[in-house]
TrEMBL record:
This is Glycolipid transfer protein domain-containing protein. Belongs to the GLTP family. The keyword Signal does not apply. Pfam families: GLTP (PF08718). The lineage of its organism: Eukaryota, Viridiplantae, Streptophyta, Embryophyta, Tracheophyta. Residues 48-147 form the Glycolipid transfer protein domain. InterPro entries: GLTP_sf, Glycolipid_transfer_prot_dom. It comes from Rhynchospora tenuis.
Amino acid sequence: MAGDGEERVLQKMAAAFEPLAEWVVSGGVAMELRPFAQACAQVVDLIEASNSIATLNDMIELDIQHGSVRQLGSHTRNLLRVKRGLELIKTLFEEIIKLQGNSLRNAASVAYDKVMALHHGQDIRKAVDAAMHAVPPKSQLFELLNEDEDSAKVKMLRFIRACGPVIEYIEELFISTQLGIDW
């Protein structure tokens, strides 16, 4: 499976965040929006914003100036959602690495409870709980990712190391602008 030459999802995820992590660790001051948005390519809004806004700091400041920080669809609100998504994936990967056995249900539950449950109402939490029964076993997940367990864990660790500093940087942006992260 692993090593047959084709780039896989876990490889791409880790590789996308490693340069951002290096930048944060080296003491970078204002993260550029475009590289961040490209690392989070599924978030079209941030990619579009990167055409006219240079840094994450600038993006948040613009939303603050326009009074739109907490409005549905604002760049800042989308950034907070991306941060939570990264945290969820990071926490899930941490739980998978610790996991003994083949069931991912507990790992997924723990990750959701740590990162997202606080931000969801009771109806969504119930729906997520019901959906946990559809979580595939670990062996099936690795098969879907075209990875064996060892190669997947190596790439998960790379992602954990790479996105950790990025998550902390984004969190600090929200705290330093007194927006907080619990909304």
